[in-house]
Design goal:
Length: 85
C-alpha cells in the first residue's frame, strides 16, 4: 500500500512531541491494516474519512482518503476536535 501525506499533515506532525508521535504511529498502523475504519464524511467532504483516536489522553482526528483501486492512503489533516473543521 502506498502512503502519502499532505503538506498540512506534515506541518502538524512536525509540532508533535515524541510520545504524541508514537500514538500517531499506532493510529496510522491501524489505518494501514484496515483503511475503512474511519467515519466517511458526506456532502462537500465526500471521499474523506475521519479516524478518531487518543493522543496523550486527548481526542484527536485524523482526516484521510483511501483509493482502493490504486491502494493509496493519503493522510490529509491532523488536529484536536476543537480546531479541526
Amino acid at each position: 500500500m502506498k502512503l502519502l501525506q499532505s503538506r498540512q499533515f506534515a506541518k502538524a506532525v512536525k509540532k508533535l512531541h515524541a510520545n504524541q508521535k508514537a500514538d500517531l504511529d499506532k493510529a496510522i498502523q491501524l489505518l494501514i491494516q484496515d483503511p475503512l475504519i474511519g467515519d466517511r464524511k458526506a456532502g462537500d467532504l465526500g471521499g474523506i474519512r475521519i479516524y478518531k483516536f487518543k493522543m496523550t489522553n486527548q481526542l484527536n482526528l485524523l482526516a484521510y482518503s483511501y483509493e482502493e483501486e490504486v491502494l493509496t492512503l493519503t493522510l490529509l489533516a491532523l488536529g484536536s476536535h476543537e480546531n479541526f473543521y
